[in-house]
Amino acid sequence: MRQRFPAAILGGVLLLPAVTARALLSAFRVLGLDADAIRDAAAIRPEELEPLDALLPDVAFTRLYEEAFRRAPREELPTEIGLAVPFGTFGHVDYLAASSETVEAAMHALAAHFRSVAHGLVLELQEVGAGGEVRLIHPGAPGPLPAVGDEFTLAVLVGRFRAADAEAPFRAAEVRLSRPAPPRPTRHAALLGAPVRFGCSVSALTVPPAAWRARLRSADPALTEVLRRLAERLELGPSGAGDLELAVRARLRALLPEGGADARTVARALGMSERTLHRRLHEAGGSFRTVVDRFREAESERLLAAGRLALAEVALRVGFSDQTAWNRAFRRWKGMAPTDWVAARR
Prior knowledge:
Layout: E1 15-17, H1 18-30, H2 35-41, E2 55-57, H3 58-71, H4 77-84, H5 92-98, H6 103-113, E3 122-128, E4 131-137, H7 146-162, E5 174-176, H8 188-192, E6 196-197, E7 203-207, H9 209-212, H10 221-233, H11 241-255, H12 263-269, H13 274-283, H14 288-306, H15 311-317, H16 323-334, H17 338-344
Parallel strand pairs: 5-6
Antiparallel strand pairs: 1-2, 3-4, 4-7, 5-7
Helix pairs in contact: 1-2, 1-4, 4-7, 5-6, 5-10, 12-13, 15-16
């Protein structure tokens, strides 16, 4: 049976880096799929993939996944593809990560230069206890293939660091995916080596302290510096709408518990006027209210899943003056009460 994507993620017009298409085709070969036939079925000419900075329309990526699913119709395929991408396929981004001192430093290097391999998607890093968490954020309006692309991206990260020569083996404590829960049990947890939660507001990877702080034996500070300078010279470093939303979210994390996360306060903390903040977010296809709402939903999920705070404390942490108002917002986000959401995930 042909597996198709939901209609909402088809037919976009965004241009995406061809390096990701090359990565998909390389992974198809590793998995024993006919990559050339899949490329031809997706109407991608070989010469379109050759330039290092080539771009392809998002519909080309939709066709690649559609054809791959037709040939290997299984729910876990995006995870299998991500785990199978050979090292080096993403060029300087792969080597920046591998030459970093620790897994944490490698994640920061990836976050800083991720836009060179994925437009419309940014990595948000946060410390969780002594470990860390990587969240996939779609600034403004979500781009094409968000759920499938998120699953593929997290699998690439797991595969990269699992194969790294580190002082401690890499493993994830939890993987959260934005895609809906499959109708039947899948092999996601076995493939990723961690519990997997579906239907989350943002896709994320939580890494325990031992793996997050682990030193990489491939660390090469000189190489890291050369690659970093090269990336900045090519203007592949952080700039643009994705970085603005990450900066806003970082301020919200500190300001929401204090009840001062209005646009004027956040803009002042970012060194710009409130009008400029609204204008730049609007140009990116979003709004301050949308960013706040999405952050509150994701942070509520994270705090509830951690299970260390009372419901009233979670409400305060995400900027609600009382638990009743937060309960109403949570029902709007999830269609159920917080207690029911927690119970459904046990």
